[in-house]
Amino acid sequence: MSMVDILRRRCSQRTFAPASLPLYQLSRLLWAAAGYNRPDHRTAPSAYNNQETDVYVALKEGLYCYDAGLNLLLNVNAEDIRHLTGTQDFVADAPVNLIFVADLARMQLVEPDEMLQMAAIAAGCMSQNVALMCAAEGLASVPRALIDRERLAAAMGLGLNQHILLAQSIGEPMPARANGAGA
What we know:
Layout: H1 3-9, H2 23-34, E1 36-38, E2 41-42, E3 53-59, E4 62-67, E5 72-77, E6 96-103, H3 115-137, E7 140-144, H4 149-156, E8 162-171
Helix pairs in contact: 1-3, 2-3
């Protein structure tokens, strides 16, 4: 599939089938967001290559943090906090909710008043990479900013220098109803 075809398929979808994603597919999405595609550089840019933005993964089984260097999910806790990743009803049912968290302590050479803006740009690039990978693989996704950040940060155990920038819900698209008939 060409990049033009992938861009044509990319759209925000807010309904998801309940099935969990296979781990290989989740791994590909995380690599698209923050994986290394060359020595010490990731698939998405960051200011001065600070790599300040971490990707957390909220699943039914618990909360994880993606370790890009090892391409592993590190367990943070065993709680299902998907319902806290946004204010919309559908987030609790999405099989995967990614949470993009900037650690401002890692931002070298960036003026303090520019840190959140630079980190937000990096997170937007990461989220777009995920959206394009979802489009290529036939998955539904939607980036989101409507988040009770204080409540979610507390549930995640984030530190003072860590800031939630955005979240992204992902899953298999909900199958269309037979013959277009609604219930």
